[in-house]
Amino acid sequence: MMRRLIRLLNGHKKLWLVKDVCGLICVFITWGLVLYAQFVVNIVMLLPEIFNQPIYGTFNILLFNSLAILALSSHFKSMTTDPGAIPKGNATKEKLESLNLQPGEIVYKCAKCYSIKPERAHHCSVCKRCIRKMDHHCPWINNCVGESNQKYFVLFTFYIASISLHALILIVVHVIKCASNDWNECASYSPPATVIFLITLTFEGLLFFLFTMIMFCTQMHSICSNETGIEQLKNEKHWGKGTKWLNVKSVFGDKFSKDWFFPCYEPSIAKSDVYQYIV
């Protein structure tokens, strides 16, 4: 079952995994918090209501868990997809000669991983590789956000923000309902335990909603302006080309479809829409 799920998400590609202890701890924390939110929403709030309000309970259970699955799937794809790493030590004499450089053309070599460094590539000290169109290294996905996995990272932030907002709305509805009735009848746990669950999920929901919504807006701004986070910080050459819509398609795919919203689909990008970084 697990192998089929991994094959669905990554196809036949080799899984990419950065061996960083801090990053792996952040990954476990992320998954643990999402699973905790599922426990409180499903077991504490919705299941006790499903017999009294079957439509309300069933709809919200399906919606919340669908968004949670998409969030965790997007996180898994962000973490296990090669962000666009340049092969180590490829700056060999034979490789340079095969480029057939013209007079005046310059090739940059990374002094840390000894690879040919294309334009817009930056070296990540955690991944220990040069990454194409590197935006930043995110410990929460234990990976860089780069040319090949930016779509999945954007989906991850969007779906985490969505389940956080959904959880907050459910908490408000549940508190109002329980305050007007007997707390013992609207929860499967004791009133003190239920209150603790709701308070902790409220803090988690607020924190994650604000954080991921800011990250989502930042990523979309970077994509639309065709300028990575590192390029903005370093005030590097502006690479703005085409329209904002063309820039979005260069990350999510050349044709707008439902595939844009699912992490199991790799972006299908037409060559004319991709900004080639010729060395």
List keywords for this structure.
279 residues, disordered C terminus, two-stranded antiparallel ribbon, elongated, mainly alpha, 8 helices
Structure notes:
The protein has 279 residues and is mainly alpha-helical. Helices cover 53% and strands 6% of the residues. It contains 8 helices and 6 strands, in the order ααααββββββαααα. The chain has helices spanning 2-10, 21-46, 54-80, 93-98, 150-180, 191-225, 229-234, 244-252, and strands at 108-109, 116-117, 122-124, 129-131, 136-138, 143-145. The strands form 3 sheets. The protein has a two-stranded antiparallel ribbon with strand order 1-2. The protein has a two-stranded antiparallel ribbon with strand order 3-4. The longest helix is centred in the C-terminal third of the chain and has 35 residues, at 191-225.
Secondary structure blueprint with pairings:
Blueprint: H1 2-10, H2 21-46, H3 54-80, H4 93-98, E1 108-109, E2 116-117, E3 122-124, E4 129-131, E5 136-138, E6 143-145, H5 150-180, H6 191-225, H7 229-234, H8 244-252
Antiparallel strand pairs: 1-2, 3-4, 5-6
Helix pairs in contact: 2-3, 2-5, 2-6, 3-5, 5-6, 6-8
Adjacency order of strands in the biggest sheet: 1-2
Cα-atom Rg, whole angstroms? 22 Å
The termini sit apart by 43 Å
Mean pLDDT: 85
> Low-confidence segments, ≥5 residues, pLDDT <50?
270-279
Summarize the structure.
By secondary structure, this protein is mostly helical. The chain contains eight helices and six strands.
